[in-house]
């Protein structure tokens, strides 16, 4: 093994996670070791934490190469696995996503207003109220009414348009007064907290970063969504999963549509036609890889490591 990989190897141990744990502790404390077992990885990670040492590297020789009745040809495979484990991991291409905590809450009555109160101290909150109840008297957050026409984008860059849009008019005593409803209003936000109980605003909504949806009839689900929204302030790294080579794309030529496999398969709607080619919205892409697996020309490739 040493001759094949150039990696210094210890004697073969059979129970480093039990009777030979003292040997494992000594090597982990010294640092720079690799343990050839994946099943008991958690034990060795906890051991490193107890010793205040660097977590060792792991390569799963036992399950991937060691368990076989034929022990004559395991050497090359084991050497290949060890050599692969010593290679630096492939870097992931990312883009920074900035969320300043501008949050749109969609819902009715006490559920929506209760969520808004919990977020108002740290977020810039607007409630899209779906019922006719009076808004709370405090002005910790804005309240609007209307119907969502369209939503696009993802965490840090949502764009929402409304019909029948109206907002509270500041005034004195008496009933709440609202502006005249109008269509085509637009807004932008970083986070959408959907407590409407209606159909989701996005296809494959669970994959849309920054869009949180919960059943308003479930207190637990609503509070979990509020808690998740509270954490979505700051700068986040978004992996860039897909790479497009337009010259290879067979979507369209001379106005005649050809291939649409990726468009049909994308669960999040991240892929859209652009002339003769297609483009991928990296903010909406969830990295499922369906597009690259179906592309007949190789125009879309999965650019992030698995």
UniProtKB/TrEMBL annotation:
GO molecular function: 4 iron, 4 sulfur cluster binding; metal ion binding
Pfam families per the UniProt record, alphabetical: Fer4_7 (PF12838)
UniProt keywords, alphabetically: 4Fe-4S, Iron, Iron-sulfur, Metal-binding
Keyword Isomerase part of the UniProt annotation: no
All copies of domain 4Fe-4S ferredoxin-type, residue ranges: 276-305
Protein name, as recorded: 4Fe-4S dicluster domain-containing protein
Annotated source species: Boseongicola sp. SB0664_bin_43
